[in-house]
Amino acid sequence: MPLGIALVIKLIPAEVWQECLKQADEEMAIDSPYKKTAAAIIIIIWLLVAAVLARLIMGWLS
């Protein structure tokens, strides 16, 4: 997967890549409370998934 991503990045023209980086930087500079809320929700989901998987694994091992 990482090799595929690296290949795609190499195939993108330099001007287009630089414009995308600039646009991404501008978007990241905008401080929005929704970003923090979304990040918190995603972290909670990952923690719940990890807890469920841990419980399943512990059940199988016992």
Question: How would you describe this protein?
Answer:
The protein contains three helices and no strands. By secondary structure, it is mostly helical. The chain folds into two domains: 1-30; 31-62. It is flat. The two termini are 35 Å apart. The model has no long low-confidence stretch (mean pLDDT 91).
Give the structure's gist in a few sentences.
Helices cover 89% and strands 0% of the residues. The protein is mostly helical and 62 residues long.
Quick one: overall form? flat
Estimate what percentage of residues fall within beta strands.
Answer: under 5%
Count the E strands.
0
Give the helices and strands as they follow along the chain.
HHH
Class based on secondary structure composition and strand pairing? mainly alpha
Helix content: over 70%
Counted up, domains total: 2
Biggest sheet character = none
Mean pLDDT: 91
* Rg estimate, integer Å: 19 Å
Span from first to last CA? 35 Å
Low-confidence segments, given as residue ranges, are none
**Helix count, per DSSP?**
3
Using brief descriptors, characterize the structure shown.
62 residues; mainly alpha
Provide the fold topology.
Layout: H1 2-11, H2 14-29, H3 33-61
